[in-house]
Amino acid sequence: MSARDWEQSDDDEVDLGDDEMEDFKEKGQEINGKAVSKDAHSLKRESSVKQQVKDVSVPFVIDAPNNLKDLSSLLDGHSETEIIEIISRIRTCNSIRLAAENRRKMQVFYGVLLQYFAVLATQSPVKFKIIDTLVKPLIEMSGETPYFAAICARERLIHTRTRLCEDIKVPGKSSWPNLKTLLLLRLWSLIFPCSDFRHVVATPMLLLMCEYLMRCPIQSGRDVAVGSFLCSMVLVATKESKKFCPEAIVFLQSLLVTSFKGKLGTHLHNEINDQFMELKTLKPWLIIHEQVHDVSPVNVLEIMGMDPDAPYFSSDNFKAGVLLSVAECLRGFVIIHEELCSFPEIFLPISSLLEEILEKSELPGPLRDIFHEVVDLIKKRSEEHHASRDPLRMRKKKPEPIKQLNPKFEENYIKGLDYDPDRERAQLKKLKKRIKSENKGARRELQKDNHFLAAVKEKMRKKQEEERAEKYGQAMAFLQEQESAFKSGQLGKGKGRKRRR
Fold first, then answer.
1. Three-class SS of residue 30?
2. In sequence order, which residues have a C-beta less than 8 Å from that of residue 426 and are 6 or more positions away?
């Protein structure tokens, strides 16, 4: 199975059943006109019987599906608990530890399951419970086949970015990510470590989210919500590594500008200085006109299925919820980037913008409280950075006199006497000279000792050679005498021996 097989575009038609298992309902017994609930023991026995009925429909030994159609026919019509059990049995029966060829099967199954996860996000209505059910096995299987999981994620990221570049060229078309892309990005942020300095999946994923925030124009209220959700995902991805992503901060700043009533002052406009501000502030997307009593964060998963021109996106409740998310994200970025040396230059313009919004816009009480909290936090951290900075100073150094080449003459000059006016330097020179002379004296003494020892050793060697030569001469004389006697026939003859007859 190639990496492209599991990529499923939004326009592809996949025959997947939308019917889920209906929940079992408890039956009441009516006695004397009153509904009486069942006994606890009978309820437990009935649920166990029904569970056995469900388990009967799920085989114990299941082969790993090779394509999306087989997996859909296997999982459709089952509850979340049964889906978990089916995937667990597939992984158990086709475990990599059982046989070497199972690795290929599990890689194919991982790609099919990831494709099924992506296809579920394109259905209407979206089955969020089943999608949540698939997250845990996908994370566990990614640990079993990490290389293949990384390949699948990178191929999908490349495909997504190619589609982004094509959509941006079409005027009037929304190029923001759809629900499937958002869910995949969130899944990969859970699977792969975002704390690494450089990662084959996490780094391209973070760059893609930042590119969405920088290049995509805002054309509807839904784009505003998707952008704020991407900012929160960037915050989660950079929380541990503390990487600085200016695209997210600039986007949040642009959303704050769209909630400002009136025109920005010249000084504030110069501080913001965003070249892409025109793409984000075509309309006052977040200006609140009426008082909002209940402020709650926007649920992006629910609004992704709405029409971009829905009246909900122009309501004050939606705008207040987005501003609440923006303020929460800003506070998170302030906390993780509080150690940056350039913190005041990055966040003080945002603090000034928040103060202007608080003065000239009608915000509900909870929003005002969190805006004040963010402003106070930025000012506190900026004051700490300003206090820790040292002002620029010129180097404190005595002026060096101009070197003159005029010759100096000393009257009544005495050879060997030091005429240095600096007594400490003269004393130091004297000590160095004395040390040098002492070194020379010690070297001479050592040389004399070496010569004496060498002479003694040479004398002893010559004496030993003379004694050896004398002994050698005596031995040679004795041997020559013996040889001469032997040759003359006199060797062995004596006066006491008599000749035989």
1. strand
2. 418, 420
